[in-house]
Amino acid sequence: MMYTVIALFIGKVASDYVLSGFDAKKAVNIISLRSIEIQKKIIEEMGSSATVFEGYGGYREEDKKVVYVVLRSQRILYLKRLITEMDPEAFVVVHNVKDVFGGTFFATPVIEHTIGLSAKFDDYEEDK
Predict the structure, then answer these.
(1) For residue 32, what are the domain limits?
(2) 87-101 b/e with 16+ CB inside 10 Å = b?
(3) Is 63 helix (H, G, I), strand (E, B) or coil?
(4) Which is higher by pLDDT, 24 or 32?
(5) 93-98-41-88 Cα dihedral, nearest 10 degrees
(6) What is the CATH number of the domain that holds 38?
(7) Please, what sign has the CA dihedral across residues 96, 102, 106, 112?
(8) What is this structure's pTM?
């Protein structure tokens, strides 16, 4: 019985890596009364960017601030701990993300070197 559970777990982890790659990302929506504080902690402690936008709660009919952040999946557990410590009542939704580019997400250095993305776009002049 225990070997079956372990084998299923290993199979799930392996299939996740095959399907989503080794650099899977997650998008997280955080709705909290402490959204601005959470956003600042994400920036300070995790070194990641976060976007705050206005929302409206349909049940309580009140304005809300929603924090939106995209992270590598390995960092989600840390984010969950951070949110839980700051606001145990926060409503958090985690989404799988297929592709991210721009902002704080760049190609890995190996890929940059391989496909020549290490030069800045400003270095190229448009054809006239």
Answers:
(1) 22-99
(2) beebebeeeebeeee
(3) strand
(4) 32
(5) 20
(6) 3.30.70.120
(7) positive
(8) 0.66
